[in-house]
Amino acid sequence: MKTLKNRLKNGVKSCYLVSGDDYFLFEKALSMIKKAAGLENPDFNLINFDDDNFSMKALLDGAEVMPLGSEKRVIVVKNVSKISESDKKLFLEYLKNPVESTVIIILDFLDKFSFIKTCELVDAKRMDTKMISSIVVSELSKRNKQISAEGIDTLIDFCGGYLTRIMNEIEKLCYYDLSEPLITKNLVEKLVKKENDFVVFELTEALGKRDADRSLTLLSLLVKDPGTLSLITNHFRRLFYISVSELDNSSLAALLGVKEYAITKQKAQVKNFSKMQLKKIYALLEEVDYKIKSGAMLSENALYFLVFSILYI
Description:
two-stranded parallel sheet
């Protein structure tokens, strides 16, 4: 967001493509661009498209209309799930000579506009821990609240690093006890529900330490979620790559499509498994996935089979 803020100081461009996985950052980018555009008379000068009303013809027709009582006209395209090849060609052709008085902002959470290479790209991926921490501290100070170092680490972990969720949880944490200015780790653990990603991290930790009781307790929190096997598979896949790779954390993060913070935490877990164990676990995950898809094993039974198998690999 700092990069976007600096770029906007030099003027607003004709098209912005915002992509990533954190809704809070999408909305933040949208607000910043609209403000920089000096949008006035939004009833006339602001058009919103989503999956229900989007059409490329309507977008391009709207882009040709001159603003009324404002320097810029703003078109927002949000969460469009389908775009045809002909629409892509039309839009790329428009970008060769865009209307200067129109600003198009594409909030591409579903990654359907990645074909665009000639507009301003805005990264709305999850931020690193240091940046998230500074934002949280700033937000809490506005409410005359503070948070302990352990508390902020726990909050980030439980929310998977998503500012969208963190901001919602801050409201709950701030108003739980108005007389207490400090938010502690214990309060975070009491009020904030863990993201499944973090539960999988804890499950992997328990499996690595051969702690059967804790492993089964954690699995009970995940077993009803149809995406659990995929989360566990991705987690062990990363552990396996980390164990055999000589790349640094930054390069591994880029290769595996995760934040550097995640690599740092998982490197600590790798020590609980040998390379051969991780190789066997990865093969086991593929076997379990096949059995579920072929109907040979029910999903819930497969997850318990998987956990018991890993405990004794």
